């Protein structure tokens, strides 16, 4: 009997691995599936005795754990600060005050400037794990795994800090463990991974190259290209779309072009309102050469309340607030407890399918629209001197430089450039189609068809190889 453990950390992981074909495919390869969930049990509705849910108790860091975890992450950034995104994260995260915790952070920043080798980071990680080894939550994880041990465990995200005790428990019991690299920017512009894994599943050859660059001790044989289930719902019959229903639901005019702006989360989407107003004003002033309407989809990570002033000023804007339900409060990362609904996936799929073009701020959403052959414009209105949030710095991030170099998107640095780009794309929506398809192939690496099956088969192979 083969038993696979799957760690679901948050709402996005739930969307990618529960609302895709993955669980169905995994049950074809394993006799039993145990989902170790960072979300409440009530979020799952499986009618299959082969699928079991184990809700993980929520772990909160003590200061000692925080110190060594923070050191590990900062040292990783120090080691790789020749990459713009890593250095940017290092600069942004630098302590600005002199609170007790900030003083500790200053110590970390100073010492990690000199002590940041891979071997030293691994020592720090061992100390980090020792700080919670006897914690009651960690011990509950060990007990849980001992009572019903899986043959292998698959982490669907490589970074959530609150799952470090669970990874420690898995490693302590010598259960083979693999992970999936969660997003296209996670390796080149994010901190250190959660810990050490036996094998890695990645989107593409490009991502594999990045992984081996930032984690040079990794054996290339243990990195497998599988694509990503993030986009698989777009080809699933479970999420049917209908153009008439879409237009009726959002009260859209069938005779007008649809410009969709996809918001970032509030932490980096600080210029979103400015861009939205620029488009809406251009439509009002007939600067768009085609009769158009604006549809705004906010980030699933927030509730859209930050746009109330924009809504009052431009009541003609159509809004799509993602239907993600908050399943639990008082969590270390409350946004992670928001889970998507089937209705929202259908709404998003409909938007991708039926709008005429997309505008966003350097988001992975660019790939979503390119999968539907839609033109994409990326806005970066802010820099260090104009008073707006400096989103132009993202143009220097390693993962995004690949996008620019591909020629698949138009970059707009101000309202005039944005309006020109909109008019150009509405006139000739397929002018960058070849470049878009090449970028999708480069970033995703494998066809959407069969993504979950590939992942399940790799996990089965890994389990057999580790017997």
Task: Explain what the structure shows.
This protein is globular. Helix content is about 40%, strand content about 15%. Strands 3-2-1-4-5-6-7 form a seven-stranded parallel sheet, with helices on both faces. Strand 9, helix 12 (about 310-315) and strand 10 form a beta-alpha-beta unit. The protein has 18 helices and 15 strands. With about 475 residues, the protein is an alpha/beta fold.
What's the gyration radius in Å?
23 Å
Spatially, the strands of the biggest sheet line up as: 3-2-1-4-5-6-7
Tell me the span between the first and last alpha carbons: 12 Å
**How helix-rich are the residues, as a percent range?**
40-55%
Biggest beta sheet attributes: 7 strands, parallel
- Count of DSSP E strands? 15
Beta-sheet strand percentage? 5-15%
Low-pLDDT sequence parts: none
Structural class category: alpha/beta
Helices and strands in order:
Layout: E1 3-8, H1 11-17, H2 22-29, E2 32-37, E3 51-55, H3 63-79, H4 84-92, H5 100-112, H6 118-131, H7 136-147, E4 152-155, H8 164-172, E5 177-180, E6 199-202, H9 205-214, E7 223-225, H10 243-249, E8 257-262, H11 272-284, E9 292-297, H12 308-313, E10 318-320, E11 324-326, E12 338-340, H13 342-354, E13 357-360, H14 365-370, E14 376-379, H15 398-406, E15 410-412, H16 415-427, H17 433-444, H18 451-465
Parallel strand pairs: 1-2, 1-4, 2-3, 4-5, 5-6, 6-7, 8-9, 8-13, 9-10, 13-14, 14-15
Antiparallel strand pairs: 11-12
Helix pairs in contact: 2-18, 3-5, 3-6, 7-8
